[in-house]
Design a protein that fits this description.
Elements (H helix, E strand, L loop, with lengths): L21 H4 L3 H18 L2 H24 L11 H22 L4 H6 L16 H7 L6 H14 L10 H4 L1 H4 L5 H11 L3 H21 L21 H10 L4 H20 L2 H34 L9 E2 L9 H9 L21 H9 L6 H6 L5 H18 L8 H13 L5 E2 L5
Parallel strand pairs: 1-2
Amino acid sequence: DGPYLEPGQATWGPDAPEFVVEWRKNLDLEGWGNEMRALERELKAEQGESDVSHLNGVLFWSNVCYFSGLALAGVCNPLSGNPISALLISTAIFARWTMVGHHVSHGGYTGQARTESGGNEWFHRAKFAKGLQRRALDWLDWMLPEAWDVEHNNLHHYQLGEGGDPDLVEKNLKMIREQPIPVWARYLRVAVLMPVWKWYYYAPNTLKEMSAAHVKRAETNPKYAGATQPFKTSEPATFALALRAMVMEGNVEPMAATLRVLLPYFAFHFVLCPLPFYLIGGSSIGNIALANFVLAELITNVHSFIVIVTNHCGKDVYRFDTQCAPRSNEFYLRAVIGSVNYRTAHTTPGRPEDKPAGMLGNVNDFMHGWLNYQIEHHMFPELSMLSYQKAMPRVKEACERYGVPYVQQSVWTRLKRTLEIMVGTENMLQWERGM
């Protein structure tokens, strides 16, 4: 309810209607946008071998976590209160997705892949994790990388906070928000979702969005002539809905499509990895190893939920009914006011004055999956992790100078605000209402 901007009305600047908040009326969007565009060009031109070395460092520590956890999987018994192996494996899985898979598939290192001596192109976005063999070697997770590319890299990034954004929490959780049950019961439903959300919701929903894109391309491209959509497009795809379609409607297509994506990771993580422990140590050692892999899966789901789902949600974050052009001034603005940052290396103790991060800062960023730079990442999605460390203080300073709201808080504060949106006790800001 309340006033709403009509088509043609100014949404910022002195010509904006009276009900538009003051910071938008005073905003020099063109000046701010030009500064941000120049900063993006500068950072992209500076990228080189140091960015590749940084990526390899992240990959190294991811592998250290994984193989250390693997070595301890038959020794550390989580059922007896020792979760060290599970925590190490969980962190490695988290890192491989949020830092390596995420930024490489966005093209953050594609420029360096083209120019690196020796022609090493494993981190070129066109080749990384594409096809079953590369998926197994580069980034094996519940989601199909090609589906993630459509859902996340394209739809989410270039329709951020809009009705077409497949990751708009307030829209996706409408059923829970409006369900006639006590608020505590809504919180319970969300809590149950957290440790399983990657395979239960994210894998089938990214697949649904890829299928929709292929069906649309089939209209003009013969390559996609046989494309079909196994899921209902009117609702987010989940494992439960695929199961219901199979059992209640006799429609096996959603479940068949989902299982084709889920089975490679399931077979690797829950069968191939524990198998040597059963063969070498028998059932007692094998069961301990399997328990570690199960616990690691639950932990990495919760870890990723906390730092991913909270990036664009809260009563102080904007959503949008209207669209904007990619790379326009408003595109950069929406990346800021539709996203939040967490604690970053810039404010972590021990940072040398001449470097974007110290040791503690890099540990902080690693444990946040570099998703604590979500504002800068949505402004400049094709930059490296190292570039985001450099960009953050400059973007924040420019926002303060121009009066653009820049939200940066503890991830735990953002989790609280996200849960409030999920259960319906708070609402996001609506851009078209002049807030």
